[in-house]
Amino acid sequence: MENAVIRFDQGFLQLDGAMGTLLQQNGLKPGMHPEEMNLTAGEAVTAIHRTYIEAGSRIIYTNTFGANARKLAPAGLTPEEVIPAAVRLAKKAAEGTDALVALDIGPIGELLEPMGTLSFEDAYKLFSQMAKAGAAAGADLAVIETMTDLYEAKAALLAVKENTSLPVLVTMSFEATGRTFTGCTLASMARTLEGLGADAIGINCSLGPVQAAPFIRELAQHTALPIIAKPNAGLPDPETGAYDLTPAQYAQAMLACADAGATLLGGCCGTSPEYLRALRDALAGYSPAPRTAAKRSFVCSPTVPLAIDGVRVIGERINPTGKKLLKQALLEEDLDYVASLAVEQMDAGADLLDVNVGMPGVDEVTLLPKVVKKLQSVVPLPLQLDTTNPAALEAALRVCNGKAAVNSVNGSEESLRTVLPIVKKYGASVVGLCMDEKGLPATAEERIAIAKRIKAAANAIGIPDEDLWIDCLALTVSAQQEQARETLKALRTVRYELGLNTVLGVSNISFGLPNRPLITQTFMVQALASGLTLPIINPNQKELMDAIAAHRVLCCEDSQCAAYVARFAGDTGAPAAPKTDAALSLEESIYRGLQKEAADAASALLSSGETGMSLVENRLIPSLDKVGTAYESGKLFLPQLLGAAQAAQAVFDKIRTAMSEGGETPVEKGRLVIATVKGDIHDIGKNIVKTVLENYGYKVIDLGRDVPPEAIVQTVTEQNIRLVGLSALMTTTLPAMEETVRLLQALPQPPAIMVGGAVVTPDYAQKLGVHYAADARQAAGVTKAILG
Amino acid sequence: MTARIAEVLRCLGVSGQAFEQGSPAVEQLKQEARQMLTGLDAAIVPKTLCRVFPLWREEDSRTFSLLGAYGSPVLTLSGHLVTTMLQDCSHAALLLCTLGLPFDGLLRTQQARGMAKAALLDACGSVLVEEACDRAEDALRSKYPHLYLTDRFSPGYGDLPLTVQPDLLLALDAEKQAGVYLTDSCLMNPSKTVTAIVGLSEQPQGAKIRGCGFCSLRERCTFRKDGKRCDSL
């Protein structure tokens, strides 16, 4: 493909205005796809483009905003029919002018995972189809616009970049809050899309130019790319939909966007060629604002932008090394457990989370992306993807929303060659480990030399210093005592002479010594004083987080000591008085939903010789039954029923650990499958049932939400399941429940079925010939009756 | 705040009587609900859409259409509920309130933390979105002081089917204006989203649809089992 290089950074470049209203004036009927006009009213479409070119537009957007296969399907059309026609019409209008034709790509019209059910991969396919058709038809560039989901914007951007050589502009729509509907921030958008290789980024739709200008200014602080402003003609009247700015007012307000740093200027809803003419006249003789974005280290999720301009804590807990329960969870793909580790670290104060799933028996290439998706569905923190497998790294970076960090590249030829291009492609930050093919260097000087080599290689491939973090390696002080000093020495040089951010896995230092927390904490404080900015630690260790809170005060990161005071308010500094009351009994702890106390009580019982099985049968289940009875009689309520279940979960974790250590067979009273039926996407009710059943000792195979009948049947057949729980929320999804029941009952050995959910009644269940459970408590009763 | 907390606890099955008696379990829930509502008020800004359409009555008086630009119908309604409600109305307002996708994100996080707090958050969300609907209705009332409002009724309620949702959301341009999507099974996403119809009339409107007779949950309602009603706890 040949494309002349288009420069977006040479002064102002005028875009076009609204298409929809002009199409309506030219015969577009309500309910009709605007894209159909490309086939039925081509001359009108070309005429609209031409009026915009005459009004000064140098880039015109094809009439393909909704031309993805999903949106076109109801009209019986395909992108391959609509897009070439649209490009042709725009090119015809641009003939003999210097106007460029941009393939316009709008949102798919369906929410992506985890909010909706459309997968990232399917979104990518839909966009690829559009990109290929547009490029083949001869578009000069592509624009991705009106996005509210950064994940969807990423899918579209990758689709254009991987399937064409077109330059690509990306704009998203922000609310007056400075966030999109999905919660994406301006900073996250800028950092992510620039990293992924967009040619220009900005804002379109939603706001008028007056409201957009401050957001443009904020964007300009987060990107060096040319900035696009394509706002509406003011704000709409909520009843009539009419926009409140005249062409002259709009053009005047657009100058504020220009002053804020935008150079690609156009209009969205409510604008017309008249507005664009006014804009052209206003821009005549006007100059772009100077741009001075400060270079900053940055990672982000869509909703949490994280500047690395102080100490930032990387949580280390998602790493199977030495963690039995996590190992087991990863082998069983029990991602809820992994998610709970993430939330725990977030609550303890981690700023980003290291994610490592490498262990024998798992395929990292498939597992790491799954874990990334799961984690991003529950925690908003940025992630650091930790793997030595380049294929797993690429697979995970691809589906990771936002700007991630990568742990790690090292100074070896092979590592630099394989890892850095992946980091560059996905716009991540990367940790450079100060080691190479010769192994671990013994001196600070050797480490610094490797850091410099990594820096040169990263810079050469286009990864700037801000995106490179150096790990000077903390070794075990009990084995190599003199190495601690070398690490600190290297750290100082890397931080203060090379000016790079620094990462350190601090906990290694104390391995094999008594009172490990003391050594770890002391070393971490020394490292922070030597220029460590990104300690990798267990944030659940209070001593470490306390020390970081103190450090932030002493180096002025914690303005007016506010966070420190909040952390220690009410703390007198005196040692906590020992608890006078004896430890709570297991029964009492569960009744009151006290997780830690329940776990402690279980540990005590286990170490006094009680078996796991006896603990479950003779203590745990009677306790849960007592809670259940109290719930039924209105003494306790749903949150407390679930609180008890969570406390029981903590007990189960203790039992599982003890049993796997003692070689006892795990507690499992029976297995069942649960799911919300096809079409149902809200699943909190099902999750409540799952929590309660798991804590009666049942193994719950949770197939999730929106589950097709066939998938349920397949699991039941493959795993010989004797009980299936189905939930349906809406009258519209009851047919899917019926279909699932019908298929299950047609099996040679049909499983028992129980149903529940907002619209399900006992009568309905009876009609289907299945069990009914009004709530989680009743579901436990049904399960007990069937599985024992 | 007390009324809101009572409403949250009602969603969790706490009867008015139990609320007043305030056992330790209830008091604990009250405290947690208060804390959670305060947090949500700071974190979540509900989004509201409201548009008023002229109403066109078909000759049989059993079908009503809301008319959009150029007088074309954007939504056609029929059935017992509609004929009862809109009989005297010249206009009807379509209403949408949503807590948005970020609330669902909070709910996912909370579920990973533990289902106990998640159940509470879910209940708080339901209360918040109902409050937003009440505010939108109040705004409508002040905007049209000379008109009387009917009860607010939602698709899925009485005999008004969920299948009106696609047209209803389209009429409000809900995807673009509020980030609300509809699945093929007519479920709205974000989860805490409510759509409703309110009739506007020059005649005073009595309450016509409150009560169990119209409620789709009547057969399994725990309040009814106890001989009570949710609106008179």
Offer a concise description of the structure.
The complex is a heterodimer of chains A (788) and B (233). Chain A has 788 residues and is α/β, with parallel strands linked by helices.
Q: Can you characterise this structure?
A:
The complex is a heterodimer of chains A (788) and B (233). Chain A is an alpha/beta fold. Among the domains of chain A are: 13-283, TIM Barrel (Alpha-Beta Barrel); 586-662, Methyltransferase, Methionine Synthase (B12-binding Domains), Chain A, domain 1; 671-787, Rossmann fold (3-Layer(aba) Sandwich), CATH 3.40.50.280. Chain A contains 30 helices and 23 strands. In chain A, the strands form four sheets. Chain A has an eight-stranded parallel sheet with strand order 1-8-7-6-5-4-3-2. Chain A has an eight-stranded parallel beta barrel with strand order 11-12-13-14-15-16-17-18, surrounded by seven helices. A five-stranded parallel sheet of chain A has the order 20-19-21-22-23, with helices on both faces. In chain A, helix 14 links the parallel strand 12 and strand 13 (383-386). In chain A, helix 26 (684-694) packs across helix 30 (776-787). Chain A is globular, with a radius of gyration of 30 Å. Chain A starts with 12 loop residues before the first strand and ends with a helix. The model of chain A is unreliable at 577-581 (pLDDT under 50). Chain B has nine helices and eight strands. In chain B, a hairpin with a 5-residue loop joins strand 2 and strand 3 (73-78). With 233 residues, chain B is of the alpha+beta class. Chain B has helices at 2-11, 16-21, 24-43, 80-86, 101-113, 115-143, 165-171, 174-178, 222-225, and strands at 47-57, 63-67, 73-78, 89-98, 148-153, 181-182, 188-189, 193-201. The model of chain B has no long low-confidence stretch (mean pLDDT 88). Chains A and B meet through helix 13, helix 25 and helix 26 of A and helix 3, strand 1, helix 5, helix 6 and helix 8 of B.
